[in-house]
Amino acid sequence: MEKTDIKSLYNKELEELFVSLGEKPFHARQAFHWLHVKHAASFAQMTDISNKLKEKLTDTCRIAVLKQEKVQCSKADGTRKYLFGLGDGNMVESVFMRYRHGNSVCISSQAGCRMGCRFCASALGGLVRNLTAGEMLEQVYRIQEDTGERVSHVVVMGTGEPLDNYENFLRFVRLLSDDKGANISQRNITASTCGIVPKIRRLAEEKLQITLALSLHAPSQEKRLSLMPVAKKYGLLEVLDACDAYFAKTGRRITFEYSLMGGMNDSTEDARQLAALLKGKNCHVNLIPINPVDERDYTQPSPQRVSNFKNNLEKYGINVTIRREMGRDIDGACGQLRKRYLN
Fold first, then answer.
1. Are strands 80-85 and 91-99 parallel, antiparallel or unpaired?
2. Is 9 a residue whose pLDDT tops 90?
3. Is the distance from CB of 250 to CB of 204 less than 8 angstroms?
């Protein structure tokens, strides 16, 4: 019988589990604190729980624990990129970044990805499997343990499509923001999606306060189709309509991620089309000069071209920033470190 992933359980579920084991509910609250505040990697570390209960838990449950396989530290800005080993031998990447507003961690939601975006290293090997909520949380916890610093912001923008792992992602958000656990505000959690329309609409009904970031990357359906296979199923206008619905339901401003690729989507006309597409929307555009990937043909535009694109959007009244480049010297693009290790 497969053991229960105890780190993925809500407080109430944990209490029900302990009652089923013949234990008092308050022991569940103790275990929850050990898992989500003290980041215990084993039941043996839970010093205020009896040995008998530890035996019961060992027999029926498992704790998702990641093994730090490799860490790269940027000499330029101190960004730390982690390669973590999962219990089954799969690998995921996470990134730790320091900002003025606090420490941010970028985590993966899947081992691999099946979305197939043409410019992304994460999709090169396809999808291996979804991560559990516990494995997603563990990326945050292990980085906090390694750095000795509190994480205040979490972005689900690493390997994988979080809305393709919907139930585990939802569980992750609720556990991460639990005031008896990590207690990270939902307003400081951002999830990036390539645009799975039914899941965006469903997410709007979940009564969460997270920020939704849409991977847009093109100003037209035709160009988006050449970059992102998901556009075959969900057209650009349909995706934007779902984003409007998310904003209307949650009041949370949408972020549109736009990876700038030299000669592909960075012209003055591209900027004009993008501005027309987003006109009147309460949104923010995050321009991302692309990190080159060996297996892909796309190149990063010159700084002047990036600046011109930003200025053109601002001329049309679009709220826009250029994402500060972090960790370029340490396999900065999503999926690069994992791929090099697996090769």
1. antiparallel
2. yes
3. yes
What crossing angle do the helices spanning 268-278 and 303-315 adopt, rounded to 10°? Answer: 40
pLDDT of residue 18: 96
Please determine, for residue 219, whether its predicted confidence score (pLDDT) is greater than 90.
yes
Q: CA-to-CA distance for 343 and 332, rounded, in angstroms?
A: 17
Residue 307 amino acid letter? S
Residues 85-93 have a mean pLDDT of 95
Contacts of 195 (CB under 8 A, 6+ apart): 214, 215, 228, 230, 231, 234, 239, 242
Q: Give the span between the Cα atoms of 120 and 85, in whole angstroms.
A: 21
Cα separation, 80 vs 74, whole angstroms = 6
- Catalytic option among 15, 23, 61, 93: 93
Contact present, 208 and 173 (Cβ < 8 Å): yes
CA separation, residue 250 to residues 139, 178, 202, 286 (Å):
27, 19, 12, 20
CA quadruple 140, 145, 147, 149: dihedral sign:
positive
Per the annotation, the verdict on 334 as an active-site residue is yes
Backbone angles phi, psi at 12, to 5 degrees: -65, -40
Please give the Cα distance from 237 to 228 (Å, whole number). Answer: 15
Average pLDDT over residues 225-243: 97
Is 93 noted as a catalytic residue in this protein?
Answer: yes
- pLDDT for 76: 83
Q: What is the pLDDT of residues 301-341, one digit of tens each?
A: 999 999 999 999 999 999 999 987 666 666 655 555 655 55
Contact 88, 131 (CB under 8 A): no
Q: Which residues pair with 81 in a beta bridge?
A: 72, 95
CA distance 164 to 128: 13
- Strand pairing category for 189-193 and 211-215: parallel
Beta strands per DSSP E along 151-262: 153-156, 189-193, 211-215, 254-260
